[in-house]
Amino acid sequence: MNKSVLAAEPTPSLVDQAYREIRRRILDNVWTPGHQALEQEVALALGMSRTPVREAMIRLRNDGLVDIVPRHGMRVLPVSPTDMREIYEILTALECMACELVARRAPSETELKPLVEATQAMDTALKADDLDAWAAADERFHGALIELAGNRQLKQTVLNYWDRAHRARMFSLRLRPKPVNSTKEHRQLVERLRAGDTEGAVKINRAHRERASRELLAIFERYRFVEM
């Protein structure tokens, strides 16, 4: 192969780095829905060449996070109430499946430890009125639950939708009621998983996710947001 062609191809590490940094800025709402930037502007912001940025933007488009506009670079896609309702329906169904898989084998205390520690961290964060720390611990809990299910395809599908829900959750974090019920629901779920109670675990998780969905959709309605 021609050496000039090899030189023009971005290394996977640079593409991954660009992908992670752009994705982080989108998910943390540094680049808010509707934000538009030329390829060169993004490259300058990241301190790298346009080639890995271009490849990263294509990956983010496939993730459903951005749209690529010819000659106008990328545009961060918003999330509508309909999007959120559908995403939460999918996440609820998949997480309930994960609960069933975990409870069916009655996990050990070692396996449950990440869930217990995340729940404790949520409780500590709420007492300190640190909503950002609470949200991080909440995501660790749900991530550990999916990991514990041991199904790679399930995990990959959940993560795809999780990214799109994360922005709306963080945007609305301080507009929602204080999440005092989540810690209690997480503890109840851990108990049902520990007992190998598949039906109980699924029931608790479904109620937990459906409540969160109702609270988020209520914010769309109360503040008349068309999208986030």
Key attributes of the depicted protein:
disordered N terminus; globular; 2 domains; Four Helix Bundle (Hemerythrin (Met), subunit A); single chain; mainly alpha
Textual characterization of the structure:
- The structure is a single chain.
- With 228 residues, the chain is mainly α.
- It has two domains: 3-76, Arc Repressor Mutant, subunit A (Orthogonal Bundle); 81-222, GntR ligand-binding domain-like (Four Helix Bundle (Hemerythrin (Met), subunit A)).
- It contains ten helices and three strands.
- It has helices spanning 3-8, 12-27, 39-46, 50-62, 81-104, 109-127, 131-149, 152-171, 180-194, 198-222; strands spanning 36-37, 66-69, 73-76.
- It has a three-stranded antiparallel beta sheet with strand order 1-3-2.
- Strand 2 (66-69) and strand 3 form a beta hairpin.
- Mean pLDDT is 89; it is low at 1-8.
Highest CATH level, the class of the largest domain:
Mainly Alpha
Report the structural category. mainly alpha
CATH architecture of the largest domain: Up-down Bundle
User: Largest sheet, order of strands side by side?
Assistant: 1-3-2
Distance between the terminal alpha carbons, to the nearest Å? Answer: 46 Å
Task: Summarize the main sheet.
Answer: 3 strands, antiparallel
Task: Quote the average pLDDT.
Answer: 89
> Tally the helices: what do you get?
10
Helicity, as a percent range: over 70%
Radius of gyration in whole Å, from Cα? 20 Å
Q: Give the CA-based shape.
A: globular
